Amino acid sequence: MTNYLVALTAAAALLAGACSAAETPAAPAKLATAQSATSSAAVAAPRYVQAAAGSSLVFTFDQAGAASKGSFGRFTTELGYDEKNLAAGSLKVVVQVASVDTEDKDRNETLLGTDLFDAQKFPTAQYVAASFAKRADGTLEAVGKLTLRGVSHDLRLPLKIVPNATGLELSGAAAIKRLDYGVGQGEWKATDSVGDEVKLQYKVSLVKAK
């Protein structure tokens, strides 16, 4: 009986050791998978910066029942873009508010005043996105925030990104409400003379960052 118990105990020990050995490699395999996923997410997307020429940032608004246009002459754009890894994408646009031009000197000065852009206190506006996503229709959008006159709101910005002779061209259009950002104090809060909605159109020529 004693020899039987010894043999049974030995067999059980061998079986337990075999099971333990079979399970041990699973942990490194899971770790390798996790490390691979982390490495993939950490890979930075190729970087692009705004070219010296060929870009425009235009806005359209309703004034006294008629469509009026303006533009910003000075702004910078930085883009991180990999069409196969949209989650790693990024976009940063910084606009010099004082560069506004509506082809009317008096209107430009009014826009830069304290009741509208208040450019002396808030000299820049910026849009920052930390990722891109595909919309239901298959088009691309940046997922970020617009900061204007010191106020920030989420804004999903439609984008079209295509190769050109020197790098990439980024373009699109969006609409915002000026009063959401405080652009309109005092008498300018009324929307009977100047509408609340402002439409944006943008086209940016980009080159590979050095």
Structure description:
The protein is an alpha+beta fold and 210 residues long. The protein contains three helices and eleven strands, in the order ααββββββαβββββ. It has helices at residues 2-23, 26-42, 105-112; strands at residues 47-50, 56-63, 66-72, 75-80, 90-96, 100-101, 124-134, 140-148, 151-163, 167-177, 194-208. It has an eight-stranded antiparallel barrel with strand order 1-4-5-7-8-9-10-11. The longest helix has 22 residues, at 2-23.
Task: Describe the structure in brief.
The chain is an alpha+beta fold. The protein has helices at residues 2-23, 26-42, 105-112, and strands at residues 47-50, 56-63, 66-72, 75-80, 90-96, 100-101, 124-134, 140-148, 151-163, 167-177, 194-208.
Write the layout of secondary structure elements.
Elements: H1 2-23, H2 26-42, E1 47-50, E2 56-63, E3 66-72, E4 75-80, E5 90-96, E6 100-101, H3 105-112, E7 124-134, E8 140-148, E9 151-163, E10 167-177, E11 194-208
Antiparallel strand pairs: 1-4, 1-11, 2-3, 2-11, 3-6, 4-5, 5-7, 7-8, 8-9, 9-10, 10-11
How do the strands line up in the largest sheet?
A: 1-4-5-7-8-9-10-11
User: Proportion of β residues?
Assistant: 35-45%
- Which blocks of ≥5 consecutive residues have pLDDT under 50? 1-27, 29-34, 36-41
What is the ordering of alpha helices and beta strands?
Answer: HHEEEEEEHEEEEE
Shape: globular
